Amino acid sequence: MKIEAVDFFYLAMPEVTTAADGSQDALLVRVRGGGLEGWGECEASPLTSIAAFVCPMSHGVCRPVGDSVLGQKLDDVADIHRIAALVERDSMDLLQAAHTFSGVEMALWDLLGKLKGEPVWRLLGYRSSEPKVPYASMLFGDTPDETRDRARQVLERGFQAAKFGWAGYGAGSRNTDADHVRAAREGLGPDALLMVDAGQIWGNDLEAAASRLPDLEAAGATWLEEPFHASAYDAYSALSARSSRVRLAGGEGAHNVYMARHLIDYGGVGFVQIDCGRIGGILPAKQVADYAVARDVKYVNHTFTSHLALSASLQPYAGLSDHRICEYPAEPKSLAVEITREHLLPDANGQIKAPDSPGLGLSVNAIGLTKYLVDTEIKVGGRTIYATPSFT
Amino acid sequence: MKIEAVDFFYLAMPEVTTAADGSQDALLVRVRGGGLEGWGECEASPLTSIAAFVCPMSHGVCRPVGDSVLGQKLDDVADIHRIAALVERDSMDLLQAAHTFSGVEMALWDLLGKLKGEPVWRLLGYRSSEPKVPYASMLFGDTPDETRDRARQVLERGFQAAKFGWAGYGAGSRNTDADHVRAAREGLGPDALLMVDAGQIWGNDLEAAASRLPDLEAAGATWLEEPFHASAYDAYSALSARSSRVRLAGGEGAHNVYMARHLIDYGGVGFVQIDCGRIGGILPAKQVADYAVARDVKYVNHTFTSHLALSASLQPYAGLSDHRICEYPAEPKSLAVEITREHLLPDANGQIKAPDSPGLGLSVNAIGLTKYLVDTEIKVGGRTIYATPSFT
């Protein structure tokens, strides 16, 4: 088939706050061709990602992402490789391109899966979709008591794992942080997995991060996530060498395969966390998963938006039965919930799987999303190069 | 003073082609405060970089760059550090932010320099502005004869150094590449410095790159630039180990200090090339220059647009007398030439220097640029969040 149209839908909650909650807006991507449509989702800053798709060319290797996608042939997995290589080359100097293409690439997989009647994970070469243990991705409370209550609620909802982060963690005293981590463990009970996300708070300050390790170890934390700037491999490596039981996790900031590999090779992380909405989509994420297997590092998705993004983020490691932990948006805004008609709900064992149905296996609730549409228009040189499309 | 206004001017030539010529459009930034104004320039994709400044917030660490700049205090160098840290934190998930802030940051330095009556290089701690040897940055010709002619013309114009690249180099046979490199050397004569830019053409294909080394060594090339993807440190390192006289150069793709340091530490480059229009401006570039000095690597600017960008790109290593090579746009489009009233022209020794006058030391030819203005408007949710401002 030929890629006939790529449409971007900028959605947002009526109010967007400074909370570390990525489900407050979304950029849905619809790709149409051969009478079918596929859907994907870009991570963060809808307007900027739209601009990178429609912007006028600056020169030969700073072309809009759209130039590498529209009108292309899409009949097989090799076509996605080819289109991705085109984007990488022709948008080399357009920084946002990786984020923009991520959502488009997901939609290409969804479309190809529908064409072939196969789930994406099978097109990726996996023979089965293995169960994953979803962890509830939560913000710390304002007080340790609040953190404890949140952890209890997570347990009551049936989760066997939870991650707490942000909300001041790492910015105050070591003692306050320790109180929160201890409270989270108390709330979760002794058996559930506990992870902690520092959200890059220490920059490259090794000692600040290292000072938290004893309290994390005492609480039996599985990992400490993003202690440092996404590219501060030296600090990662040094902290990794000083930590015995708590492994480091990171990788969500990777916008190409190299960056994720570097965090493994130079940073010494034990868990590599990939956001398919940032790294360029499902294919580069699968390459990271392969690399993680080879390096004995665990692959984990990074997802805090819709179940469309969740399904996409499960595909790259769907068949890896030893890579079992999965980020699960536990407090999404209604917008993120309503993007798909179906949801990836935990089964009787509290586990989820990438769907068996074709493509990403979920249908988009297009008409129901109209109320979240942010009407957007971009005019350049007197010509409208982007206007919010219609769902129909 | 307080930063009162930040205005973006999208400029373009009437026709923009797929040539590897970055001077075909420009994004000028004007920052106003305290009755003064400073100017800077972002590298590539004006529309996308504007969007990253004005876009609605997605969440707490995906805020528009504007939120970290507008209304801020600017009285001293420490304020630029502080504002840069704000952008890094609050726009963590906005990929384009580094490119957008680069032009703003240059303008902040220009403004601060004017406030203090000092050139930027002095504010950076240098005591002198040392002469640099400009190299003409050229595209290879379509034929070796054309390449030879171009090299001769460069020599006749008084350049003592030239870099050739792109235009198919690396994409065809080794013999064709060798013919072009030999022709370039013939045209330049035996004494001028010759550099070759592969424009990432070999991805991470070590053997393809290594096969060109003998011909580059035979032609006495000073460096081979960007043989690989900007993040392919393994390939850089392996090629570096196999090259005796020709050093590797790279770094223009770095959008933070870490990436440039990694190319030195993990990639083994001999020359680190920084574009102040991408790495986040002058301050991070200065940090890379300091690091290069410590690691015995040569710092080089990456610039292929206006002399405003050229002045900005000279500041970070202005005081380093041992780091003498400087990229000089040799075939800029009229737009790039007309951005500044003054130009950094080679002196009797064929050398250039960062200006001694306050700020970046060049004045912007605002009214004269009106003919290049690309009328642009961005509307979100019924509100115009960007419209091309007036130069007056």
From TrEMBL, chains A, B:
CDD domains cross-referenced by the UniProt entry: MR_like
An example molecular function term from Gene Ontology annotations: catalytic activity
Xref: Pfam families: MR_MLE_C (PF13378), MR_MLE_N (PF02746)
Domain Mandelate racemase/muconate lactonizing enzyme C-terminal residue range list: 144-246
Protein name, as recorded: Mandelate racemase/muconate lactonizing enzyme family protein
